[in-house]
């Protein structure tokens, strides 16, 4: 079996290379620190280790640390104590980042103040070493060094785009300025250490050189007065002459002279001298490192040890002066303690410069934060969600600033905001107005009724919705023309506005439909207003010299007694208006009066419906379904309508439930199907591409009345192709015992009839059912489409359903489209088939024919 080649992505390779480079940089900086004065070393290896921690996490950082510091301990004699403290620093930084991923400066300083310094001081106590000013200087610089490294790691991680995580938030200006301020303070401390330390060490070396040269001159002068015999005695190791020479060396300089060694010309030691109580051997002759300072002066340093402590420079470093006499070489061990102490004091005295600089930078940072950053942050808070504030009309509290640039910026933003509010108000006014009458339009009404119902429910107050449908308006249009009809609508709007006092909202929904929303009212006051509206509409209108008599049918729903949400209230007011129109022209009805009532009793309604079916009184209205991709009407939905010979229009909400209960759904469905097929033939004769018609099938039609067999028979009798008949079934059909229904639908499917699942998303269907049903498409329920532009949650649901339909290979129709925004959002979501009042109300076959002819079909 062939092995699959191992491949790494380009991004993974880059990560591995970055990890290796950071580790190599950490190792090199540990091996070659910056050498400062007085044995002070600056290490930047933790910069790269902390960067590894921030970029790759704690596990890769720990592995890198162990490798680097294992090499440091073994190859470069890194003290074990310092390696252990660095490990604690890394652990603290990792723990801090797991809780607050905003930086590692604070845990670094905390570790070295709380653990690092006490651990080093404890080491001095245990080793009985002296704790002096040089140690304090070393510890101070160590804390500054580690803080500087952590700060550099933070700034590099946040500022360099190739190191930052793409998912992390943007850099905050205030945080960046704070870090740069601290960086400046610590950086200035570093500059101070570099500059002052170098000067102090140069001064110390020059002083020692000067003292050593003076001592050498004294020794040479004394030695020049010796006789040849005395010099020979030195070669012969005469104790007397060696004693004289020892005293000359001891008294020749003011520097504390601890030891000296006398060699002959052949390099053999003649004698070592001890000038204090210390009688330790002169092991410095063979151990340590001799670093030449000048022709005659060396600085001796002990080799590093794993157990060295910071600040052990005094113990591990001193100076050696080389003096050559005739036949002799003298090496004098000079103590540097006095000069080192002076250098430390010089450091401390100069630290006031650093303190002054730090205070200056700190005050400048405070100024930036107080007068600039706080102003910018306040401006950000004010301008956050500014469009929503402007839309809601909330007051925006601008603030003054003493900084001219920020003051001008605030003025400019304030001016632009005012202009935008004015433009938004004008645009909103135009978008919410009916251009013909000047009243609010349907869009504005849809927004207002939601707010009105919510307010009435919340305040436990009473409001009313009044639906007004003009009577005898169509004859005016037909007889006198559209101009007269438009003028009539304007006069109606004027009369309604005149009666709309404070707290009353008037709107034209379209055509000859108007609404009034009355706030803070009661049924009696609403009844009186409805009477006045009816009287106003029955008063003749004068149009072009003609006295026109119309009137209006009014339906009233009280809030919240007739509904606690906008959709319910609108539906009930509409039902009351239909009941008023059925009663007689110029009537008004309250929805409360319709509860449990009907124009007919149940037996009368059933008998009248049978008679209507016998006399073919039921007709079909058709609502267009448009394909925005094709730019035309592609199908219509057939809706049964009943105009009673005496009582006028009977609502489908009334006669369809009666047909279901009275066993007339089979006859009603067959009547609808025959009428639809006849209309298809009529359109086929008029147009080259007749549109298809969708009809609704109920559960009882599918289960009891063999709708599939009926459709097959009617299609054969009329000769209509199954391609032009489509059926819609609602989700409630599949609530229970759906196996017989599936058989009926499968039969329709085999006939070539397209099947739609209506009101999808509000009933009983599930993803499992979608796999079982022989459907061709979904009709998205109007509940998802309503106020689609204002509620992001609905938009997300719609997009999910559209994507689901596509994945299942199903078409989708968006129902209830009433606004251009809803059309645009559905289209952008991929729903090109749409249905709703925005594209056309249910209309007669003649009106559909005229609409098709106008559209150029």
From TrEMBL:
<dbReference type="InterPro" id="IPR029787">
    <property type="entry name" value="Nucleotide_cyclase"/>
</dbReference>
<keyword id="KW-0812">Transmembrane</keyword>
<feature type="domain" description="GGDEF">
    <location>
        <begin position="461"/>
        <end position="593"/>
    </location>
</feature>
<feature type="transmembrane region" description="Helical">
    <location>
        <begin position="43"/>
        <end position="68"/>
    </location>
</feature>
<dbReference type="Pfam" id="PF00990">
    <property type="entry name" value="GGDEF"/>
</dbReference>
<dbReference type="InterPro" id="IPR001633">
    <property type="entry name" value="EAL_dom"/>
</dbReference>
<feature type="transmembrane region" description="Helical">
    <location>
        <begin position="80"/>
        <end position="98"/>
    </location>
</feature>
<dbReference type="InterPro" id="IPR000160">
    <property type="entry name" value="GGDEF_dom"/>
</dbReference>
<protein>
    <submittedName>
        <fullName>Diguanylate cyclase (GGDEF)-like protein</fullName>
    </submittedName>
</protein>
<dbReference type="InterPro" id="IPR052155">
    <property type="entry name" value="Biofilm_reg_signaling"/>
</dbReference>
<dbReference type="Pfam" id="PF00563">
    <property type="entry name" value="EAL"/>
</dbReference>
<dbReference type="InterPro" id="IPR043128">
    <property type="entry name" value="Rev_trsase/Diguanyl_cyclase"/>
</dbReference>
<feature type="domain" description="EAL">
    <location>
        <begin position="602"/>
        <end position="856"/>
    </location>
</feature>
<dbReference type="InterPro" id="IPR035919">
    <property type="entry name" value="EAL_sf"/>
</dbReference>
<keyword id="KW-0472">Membrane</keyword>
<keyword id="KW-1133">Transmembrane helix</keyword>
<feature type="transmembrane region" description="Helical">
    <location>
        <begin position="173"/>
        <end position="194"/>
    </location>
</feature>
<feature type="transmembrane region" description="Helical">
    <location>
        <begin position="104"/>
        <end position="122"/>
    </location>
</feature>
<feature type="transmembrane region" description="Helical">
    <location>
        <begin position="354"/>
        <end position="373"/>
    </location>
</feature>
């Amino acid at each position: 079996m062939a092995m699959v080649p191992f491949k790494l992505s380009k991004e993974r390779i880059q990560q591995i290379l970055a990890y290796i480079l950071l580790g190599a940089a950490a190792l090199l900086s540990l091996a070659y620190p910056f050498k400062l004065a007085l044995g002070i070393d600056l290490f930047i290896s933790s910069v790269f280790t902390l960067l590894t921690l921030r970029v790759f996490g704690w596990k890769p950082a720990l592995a890198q640390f162990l490798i680097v510091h294992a090499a440091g301990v073994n190859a470069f004699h890194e003290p074990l104590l310092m390696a252990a403290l660095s490990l604690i620093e890394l652990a603290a930084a990792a723990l801090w980042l797991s809780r607050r991923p905003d930086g590692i400066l604070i845990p670094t300083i905390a570790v070295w103040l709380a653990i690092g310094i006490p651990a080093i001081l404890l080491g001095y106590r245990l080793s009985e070493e002296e704790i002096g000013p040089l140690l304090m200087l070393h510890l101070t610089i160590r804390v500054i060094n580690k803080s500087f490294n952590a700060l550099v790691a933070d700034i590099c991680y946040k500022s360099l785009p190739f190191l930052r995580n793409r998912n992390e938030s943007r850099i905050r200006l205030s945080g960046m300025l704070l870090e740069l301020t601290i960086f400046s303070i610590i950086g200035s401390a570093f500059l101070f250490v570099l500059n002052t330390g170098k000067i102090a060490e140069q001064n110390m070396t020059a002083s020692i050189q000067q003292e050593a040269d003076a001592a050498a001159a004294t020794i040479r002068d004394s030695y020049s007065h010796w006789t040849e015999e005395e010099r020979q005695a030195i070669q012969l190791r005469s104790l007397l002459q060696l004693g004289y020479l020892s005293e000359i060396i001891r008294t020749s300089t003011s520097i504390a002279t601890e030891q000296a060694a006398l060699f002959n010309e052949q390099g053999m030691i003649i004698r070592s001298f001890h000038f204090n109580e210390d009688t330790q051997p002169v092991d410095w002759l063979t151990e340590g490192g001799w670093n030449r300072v000048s022709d005659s002066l060396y600085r001796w340093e002990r080799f590093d040890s794993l157990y060295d402590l910071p600040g052990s420079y005094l113990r591990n470093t001193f100076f050696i002066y080389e003096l050559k006499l005739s036949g002799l070489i003298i090496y004098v061990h000079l103590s540097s303690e006095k000069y080192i102490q002076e250098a430390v004091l010089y450091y401390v005295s100069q630290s006031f410069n650093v303190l002054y600089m730090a205070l200056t930078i700190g005050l400048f940072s405070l100024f930036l934060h107080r007068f600039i950053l706080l102003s910018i942050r306040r401006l950000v808070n004010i301008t956050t969600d500014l469009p929503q504030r402007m839309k809601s009309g909330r007051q925006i509290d601008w603030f003054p600033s003493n900084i001219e640039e920020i003051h001008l910026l605030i003025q400019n933003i304030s001016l632009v905001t005012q202009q935008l509010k004015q433009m938004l108000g004008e645009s909103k006014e135009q978008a919410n107005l009916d251009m013909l009458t000047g009243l609010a339009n349907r869009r504005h009404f849809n927004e207002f009724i939601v707010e009105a119902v919510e307010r009435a429910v919340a305040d436990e107050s009473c409001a009313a919705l009044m639906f007004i449908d003009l009577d005898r308006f169509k004859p005016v249009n037909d007889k006198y023309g559209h101009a007269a009809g438009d003028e009539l609508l304007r006069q109606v709007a004027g009369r309604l506005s005149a009666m709309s006092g404070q707290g009353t909202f008037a709107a034209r929904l379209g055509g000859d439909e108007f609404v009034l929303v009355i706030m803070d009212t009661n049924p009696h006051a609403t009844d009186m207003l409805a009477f006045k509206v009816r009287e106003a509409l029955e008063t003749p209108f004068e149009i072009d010299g003609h006295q026109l008599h119309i009137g209006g049918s009014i339906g009233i729903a009280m809030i919240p007694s007739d509904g606690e949400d906008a959709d319910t209230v609108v539906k009930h007011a509409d039902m009351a208006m239909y009941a008023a129109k059925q009663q007689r022209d110029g009537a008004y009805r309250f929805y409360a009066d319709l509860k449990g009532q009907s124009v007919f009793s149940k037996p009368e309604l059933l008998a009248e419906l049978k008679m209507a079916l016998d006399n073919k009184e039921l007709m079909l209205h058709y609502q267009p379904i448009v394909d925005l991709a094709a730019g035309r009407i592609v199908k219509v939905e057939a809706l049964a309508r009943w105009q009673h010979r005496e009582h006028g229009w009977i609502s489908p909400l009334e006669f369809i439930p009666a047909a279901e209960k009275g066993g007339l759904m089979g006859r009603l469905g067959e009547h609808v199907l025959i009428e639809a097929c006849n209309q298809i033939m009529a359109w086929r004769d008029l147009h080259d591409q007749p549109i298809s018609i969708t009809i609704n099938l109920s559960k009882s039609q599918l289960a009891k009345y063999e709708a599939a067999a009926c459709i097959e028979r009617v299609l054969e009798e009329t000769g209509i192709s199954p391609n032009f008949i489509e059926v819609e079934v609602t989700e409630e059909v599949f609530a229970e015992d759906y196996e017989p229904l599936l058989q009926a639908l499968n039969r329709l499917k085999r006939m070539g009839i397209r099947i739609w699942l209506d009101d999808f998303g509000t009933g009983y269907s599930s993803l499992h059912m979608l796999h079982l049903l022989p459907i061709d498409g979904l009709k998205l329920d109007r509940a998802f489409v309503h106020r689609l532009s204002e509620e992001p949650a609905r938009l997300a649901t719609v997009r999910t359903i559209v994507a689901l339909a596509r994945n299942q290979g199903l078409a989708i129709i968006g129902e209830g489209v009433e606004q251009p925004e809803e059309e645009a959002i559905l289209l952008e979501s991929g729903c090109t088939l749409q249905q709703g009042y925005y594209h056309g109300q249910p209309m007669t076959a003649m009106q559909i024919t005229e609409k098709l002819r106008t559209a150029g079909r």
